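Q: Study each token:
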Amino acid sequence: MEMRYQLPPEPNHKKTSKPYKKPDAIRELERLYMANHRKRYPSIPEYARSCKKYRDDSSNSLTKSIIDFLNMSGHLAERINTCGRYVDQSQTFTDVLGKTRTIGTGQWLPTSGIKGSSDISATIYGRSVKIEVKQKDKQSEDQKRYQQRIEAAGGIYLIIRNFTEFYEWYNANFAVATEPQKNNQCIDNQYMKNESDQ
């Protein structure tokens, strides 16, 4: 009788990550993008439009989502580069044997900005808002000192870990009603009055 051997299964060393579940706040951002796209390009037919996909599961994607949301909402937001500048001082040449060699190294030059600056600088309804995006890491000492300086100067400093957290903060502090319930209700920072009240 012939013996058959079965090899053991190969071990799976790759980490399996959970699939990304898009939160409702990101879906609202995508709806805002589509409304903004329709306003900017009214002549494009609906079937030809494609929605930009947003995520908030990495620092870069979260930063991009916050900046786009603020700019599409009529505010001003920009990313602040605090990593400095890399200067490459290496040289590449071909030796007498025909091999390509590289000698020398590069060097990082420090940023000309303030140490500990936030990732996003924004102006929302005239208020200066600095946003630090933190996914897993913690604030450095320079960032804590920067936060103290911003708050002492009357600005707003936020530490944001996901887009839902930012979206809820924005709605709690800056969202305005769209339909007046009374004639003297403050809408979009202006008072609405009927002609008969004047």
The beta strands are 76-79, 85-88, 91-94, 100-103, 106-109, 120-124, 127-133, 156-160, 186-187, 190-191. Residues 7 and 13 are 18 Å apart (CA to CA). Residues 24-40 form the longest helix (17 residues).
